[in-house]
Write a structure and sequence with these properties.
The chain is α+β, with helices and mostly antiparallel strands. It is built from seven helices and nine strands; from the N terminus they run H-E-E-E-H-E-H-H-E-E-E-H-E-H-E-H.
Length: about 230
């Protein structure tokens, strides 16, 4: 029996995210994509984002120039690269192509951290209405990815977002308050919209009747929001 194949496009990616699925490659050089639907879905509640005192001081000291959407391709390339403690990644050429396509459509965004003009950290993810689906982050300088995350949360809070989906909960994310909800595979039936509803914030406050509509509100600075 032959296996049916089909082209994965940015438009199909959006449909998958709305259904609670997300893609990964097995390896950096792999040529196949896999759709994941974990039993436990990681989220970072925006109202309970936690920064340690040390990291808060670092963020407010502004050791890096932090921007958004100024070099998406360099950020995803940084996330795809191997490095100390990371022998391989799940971001292959197809993942880069698809997310770059989503970025051109206004659905994928990046946060960049630069030091002396050089990109030293950042993160990227997908936006659907009031939900931000975090994909990956990288760091080449101390706390650069953590500073990028703090700025992301500030932008999401200021934009009235209701969900920061982290896919999984790691020890790294747990320090910021990440927790788990049952995913669709775990009986939760978690589409993008129901995941967003589970966080308890109001998308209506942003004037969006459909929480899965595209959003362009992705700006602001970390000093405009007081971290707890």
């Amino acid at each position: 029996m032959s296996r049916r194949s089909f082209e994965v496009t940015p438009e199909l990616m959006l449909r998958a995210y709305r259904a609670g699925l997300f893609p990964m490659a097995e390896t950096r050089d792999g040529d196949r994509l896999y759709w994941l639907d974990p039993e436990q879905r990681g989220i970072l509640p925006l109202d309970f984002f936690h920064l340690s005192r040390r990291l808060l001081r670092t963020v407010l000291a502004e050791p890096y120039e932090v921007t958004s959407d100024t070099d998406f391709t360099a950020v995803i390339a940084g996330c795809a690269a191997t490095g100390p403690g990371r022998d391989d990644t799940w971001i292959n050429a197809d993942i880069e192509r698809l997310f770059t396509g989503l970025h051109r459509m206004g659905h994928a965004h990046s946060i960049e951290c630069r030091q002396d003009g050089a990109l030293v950290g950042g993160l990227y993810g997908v936006v659907i209405g009031g939900a931000f689906f975090g994909e990956s982050m990288f760091s080449r300088a101390r706390d650069a990815s953590k500073v990028a995350l703090a700025h992301l949360v500030a932008r999401l809070r200021l934009g009235g977002f209701r969900l920061l989906d982290t896919q999984f909960v790691t020890a790294h994310l747990a320090q910021f308050g990440a927790t788990e909800l049952p995913g669709a595979a775990g009986g939760g039936g978690r589409s993008a919209c129901t995941l967003a509803a589970a966080t308890g914030a109001a998308v209506a406050a942003r004037g969006i009747s459909d929480p899965c509509r595209p959003s362009r509100q992705f700006s602001g600075t970390v000093r405009q929001w007081a971290f707890r």
